[in-house]
Amino acid sequence: RLLEKVGVSFQVIKSGPYKDILAFDRELTDPEQQILQDLIDTSYQQFVETVAEARKLAVENVKSFADGRVFTGQQALELGLVDRLGTEEDARRLAAELAGLDPEKTECCTLEKAKPFLNRVLGSSLDISGLSAYNNLLEFELSTSGLPLWMYRP
What we know:
single chain, flat
């Protein structure tokens, strides 16, 4: 309604009746609402069944607490959602044991997301405002080897 008040309108061209099902410029129709509700209900049922099967719990038991709440570790343990509580080191040791490795001789490494191109070249102390957009564009150009990508450019 605010957009209408300031004179903004939309013209939609689509290839199917539900291609703009989550368009922000209009309310959901009843059929669209039902499609989305069915999707959510099906996804929820699959989630509950997967948790119940993996944790060897009754589906109704899982439904009694699978309602969006967040649990502490202790609560999750009491509900049967985790096997035990511990530290990251405890988890590393257990993973090594389950893989048949000696936890004392197993090295641990942390994988990190690659840093942007200019940060890799010039160092992590680079923090010059305005260069970020150029860094993203350069990173994009280098990652695509300059190949044309129809209708896409960051």
